[in-house]
Predict the 3D structure of the following.
Amino acid sequence: MSTATHQDLLIELGTEELPPTSLKALSEAFANEVLRQIDDAGLAHGAMTVFASPRRLAFRIDALQTAQADRDIERRGPALKAAFDGDGQPTKAALGFASSVGLTVDQLDTQETDKGAWLVARVTEQGKPVSALLPDFLAQSVQRLPIPKRMRWGARKEQFVRPVHWLVALLGNEVLPLSLLGLTAGRDTRGHRFHAPAPLTLATPAEYEQRLEQDGFVIADFARRRDMVREQAIAAGTQAGGQAHIDTDLLDEVTALVEWPVALLGHFDADFLRVPQEALITAMQEHQKYFPVLDPQGKLMNAFITLSNIDSKDRQAVISGNEKVIRPRLADAAFFYDNDCRKTLAEHAEPLKQVVFQQQLGTVHEKCERIGRLAGIIATQIGGDAALATQAGRLSKADLATEMVYEFDTMQGIMGYYLARHEGLPEELAQALNEQYLPRFAGDALPATRTGQAVALADKLDTLVGIFGIGQKPTGDKDPYALRRATLGILRIIIEQQLPLDIVALVNDAAAGFGTRIDATTTADALEFINGRYRAMYQDHGIDTQVILSVLAVAPSQPLDFDRRVRAVAAFRARPEAAALAAANKRVANILAKLDQAPGDEIDGALLEDDAEQALANAVVEAYARTEPLVDAGDYAAILALLAELRAPVDDFFEHVMVMADDDAVRNNRLALLSFLRDLFLQVADISELGG
């Protein structure tokens, strides 16, 4: 590439400290929108590098074409019959079109198409230089940034997420003549606010990162700075004799807070470790942006890691300052915990009698009573302790009234676990209080204890059935009670934990707990909603929609049974016999659907006239005998493997036998045979759906 026609481009917008949680998104949006417009303009270029730090949004594009190439364009004008009058003189339409493209009517061409003849203009469009295009590209990009609230500063009219202070725009070694947000572009950037406050003059875009790092104490590359933060935190954790607990979101946020990361190890009073470590970790991470340190067993140590944005000459002073700041935060958590421990869970639950869960469905206390009742029913069916599950259900939301959960909302469930243990309640009950919210998101862990499984299912079912019962089912993307997530959680718990539960019975049991508060007929809507979640869940696992629909068609009521059928049908579909048998089932279903009454429930051997129908009848009778024990065992894969052997007699039957014979008795006998054949497959699924 010629250096005369291709140059590196650097754009940097210098600001006051940007919002750390949105820095990465802002930098990428700023750069990518400009790049999109460059691509749309037909400008060739090399790689783009995006930079982001607390005080800058920047990007560099290598080897950018410095001007658009001229291009020949063709524009269609009015139809020929509208372009000239009866005397052959150009009409206003023709004259206006010619004027719009800078030509006379004589300079226009005619184009014949299958829809008629048209006037066309063939002109050469002059390419624009990058210097003329970029001002608009940058303005558009800034305007489209995902900024929820823009600000003005001083007496200026410009609006942005933070006040802006400098603008760098270099194409090669030249400053581009442009302005943005009231700033005129130059070649001076700024280094670290304290370590290198003087301007840094850039000669070319290529030296950007190196100059900022060597002379400006700024690591401009977000990804590299993130790696540095992680590595320094890990080293500090090792120095403390443990391991840094690095939350991914916090890592991004800390990276967005510093330009020159320096990890420092601090400590706090070990007495605070008596407080639930989840609360201490929340205080450190959310309030102070510290990384906690865990021992090899995963227990919190009395140490934390903070990332300073300066390399202080007196690091111990910085550490001491942070230790002073964290102490009252942890003291607050200890105060709340000590206060909460003075009451039993039952005492904490008392105020819930005054807290409304949902106006039509009653208070949180009433919900807990329903959860306890339903959890006891579920526990009995899955081999758990019904009394323990009932007690856990009734206490399940007690910690919502604690001071700890009021101050640290992430502690719900967790605080219940600690209070139950402090009170001396059974360990499984304590575990259940923590497990009741699982799974919280896709791929999350599931309740491990039988009591936890019972309470988690009861809680989710109560919400699902209750909200449907008052006619507030999810619509479109509106799901205020997170019923889609709750239903997926119900299915995952039952299927992945291999629980022998009937979803229809569970929904009815849940509905019974509401009495007259809900419309009992809405259970059908809730079950239909659950069936829709089956579809979403298995599609996420790569199962074809037709496979899911084939199982939904036979409506198995146990999720675990549903899962076995889906996996069996998915495996069957890969067999060479599947397509033919699916087509045959579709044909049989269509024939039977047209009948005024159901076929007979017996096959008369004396009426089997053709060898092919005799062979199919024998195969069907034999298949029933062989599949009966497999049906009882729920071995659907084995059933379908056995039924695959029917392909040959089925194909032979349809090739040689006229089903709708003239003789009524023969016809009805053949229809009965086909009905038996279809019922064989319906023991697993409606495989006629596989041909869809």
